[in-house]
Write a structure and sequence with these properties.
- This protein is mostly helical.
- It contains five helices and no strands.
- It has helices at about 10-20, 25-30, 35-50, 55-95, 100-135.
- It is elongated, with a radius of gyration of 20 Å.
- The termini are close together.
Length: about 150
């Protein structure tokens, strides 16, 4: 479904399907970092309400697909970060005996850049989730960019 909904209750539940992906933020703040909370939150809302309205079903799947996609992208970025860090430390160890000051600086720039990439992914995720929730609350179906649609 790519249409709209006039049902206020369906709009509210669809909105919560999107916002539930942000549950990890307050949980992390209070010291309860739950792995995959960004997926578990929307999953709970979608599974319990998907039969109630096609709009909830559509937006719940959209939210889940986006959160799964962002999790995959985050894992890939982390693997790349670790891989580059390991390679860097191997090269830096060899270069340390030959005045590796410039190499150390380059490694810091690469590390900050990759950590910055993870931060950009997180900020992007926050912005589009809020946009999706606002659209769903208004009765409009939202399609997240860069989403792998695993759940059909």
């Amino acid at each position: 479904m790519t249409g709209n909904s006039d049902d206020r209750q369906a709009q509210m539940w669809a909105m919560w399907c999107h916002l539930a992906s942000l549950a990890w933020i307050p949980l992390a703040i209070i010291g309860l970092p739950i792995p995959f909370a960004n997926i578990v939150g929307p999953l709970i809302f979608w599974v319990t309400k998907k039969e109630a309205d096609p709009f909830i079903n559509d937006q719940g799947k959209e939210s889940l697909n986006f959160q799964i996609s962002m999790t995959i992208y985050g894992f890939i970025a982390t693997i790349v970060l670790v891989f580059i860090a390991v390679i860097y430390f191997i090269v830096a160890g060899v270069a340390a005996s030959n005045d590796g000051g410039l190499l150390l600086l380059a490694g810091g720039v690469i590390g900050i850049g990759l950590i910055g990439l993870l931060a950009i992914i997180g900020i992007f995720q926050l912005i589009v989730v809020i946009l999706a929730a606002v659209k769903a609350k208004g009765g409009y179906a939202y399609r997240y960019p860069f989403t792998i649609r695993l759940i059909k």
